[in-house]
Amino acid sequence: MKAALRNGIKKVDVIEMEKPEPQANEVLIAVKSCGICGSDIVRIQEDNPKWDKIVLGHEFAGEIVAVGEGVEGWNVGDRASAAPLMPCMKCDKCAQGNYSLCKSYSFIGSRVQGAFGEFLRVPARNLVAIGDLSYDQAAFIEPITVCLHPILRLENLLGKDVVVTGAGTIGLLAIQIFKAMGCREIVASDISDGKLEMARAMGATIVCNPMKEPLEEVCERELEDGAHVVFESSGAAPAKISAINVAKGRGKILLVGTSHAPITFTGPEFERISRQELEVIGSWMNYSAPFPGAEWTTAVWMMEAGLINVDPLKTHTFPIEQIQDAYDVIYKNEELWAKVMINF
């Protein structure tokens, strides 16, 4: 089968690999669509040779073409996506339903071979039915669940003001979820004016380019005493600092974006967490009990109900044979892109 494998920093080759066979309690999926995640972008450019040995890709959907022994409820021909996490199901964290905290997990596309290949072995318990969604749409289920995991921990959002820092795929999806949940003002912040235009189209009521005007000034002018919720998806140090500054008293800060550089808070900035009694909520991955969790079925429902429209986020699509061109769009950053898709 064809698969994409890194061959050094920012280089990806399409190679031939042996087609896998499903083991007991597994199915074999013919991958039809897989999105390039921000974690894939980091791994392709990271100076770490281990990524030359693993087929990446975990935002995928396809068709079941073989079923292993012991699988019930799934058949050849079924259309599905799947949760990429493979928790141990033996530790206390798994027993509590906190699968994201499992220390002995495996993961499709980072610890075992991923979905940038024509065929993929998947545990049957990880499967998620996709209904009438297209394969490209269903490949967005996983990033939607990344948004839903922390948002579903919040209380009623009707009439609340929120700030979303970072208008990449995760931020743009979060904006749609906040809109669907009845938020009043939705402030989107990003350093790309093109991304801010997309944020407007997704439901943001106010946009801010912090390179032109500080987010703090925009929120002071537009919001009444700050944001009830700040959804930080960029991972950028200035955005994390601003998140503390723009949250209102007893507001909630959802830390979703991964940081790749040191962050320095001043004493007064950090002390604002205490003085304003802010709740800083970390969010890692996207799972709950019963596995893989309500995040996954909710994501499918929200797309089917028209509450989330992922089609405008799919800015580029390439066949697997042109995956290098797909990454070049991202690394060159010469044109507006959100989600770059790989089709088979």
Question: Helices, strands, pairings?
Answer:
Layout: E1 2-6, E2 12-16, E3 26-35, H1 38-45, E4 59-67, E5 79-82, E6 85-86, H2 92-95, E7 106-107, E8 119-123, E9 127-129, H3 135-138, H4 141-151, E10 162-165, H5 169-180, E11 186-189, H6 193-202, E12 206-208, H7 215-222, E13 227-232, H8 237-246, E14 247-255, H9 267-275, E15 279-282, H10 294-304, E16 314-319, H11 323-332, E17 339-343
Parallel strand pairs: 10-11, 10-13, 11-12, 13-14, 14-15, 16-17
Antiparallel strand pairs: 1-2, 3-4, 3-8, 3-17, 4-5, 5-9, 6-7
Walk me through the structure:
It is a single chain. The chain is of the alpha/beta class. The chain has two domains: 2-140 and 310-343, Quinone Oxidoreductase, Chain A, domain 1 (Alpha-Beta Complex); 146-282, Rossmann fold, CATH 3.40.50. It is built from eleven helices and 17 strands. It has helices at residues 38-45, 92-95, 135-138, 141-151, 169-180, 193-202, 215-222, 237-246, 267-275, 294-304, 323-332, and strands spanning 2-6, 12-16, 26-35, 59-67, 79-82, 85-86, 106-107, 119-123, 127-129, 162-165, 186-189, 206-208, 227-232, 247-255, 279-282, 314-319, 339-343. Strands 3, 4, 5, 8, 9, 16 and 17 form a seven-stranded mixed β-sheet that branches. Helix 4 crosses helix 5 (169-180) and helix 4 (141-151) packs across helix 10.
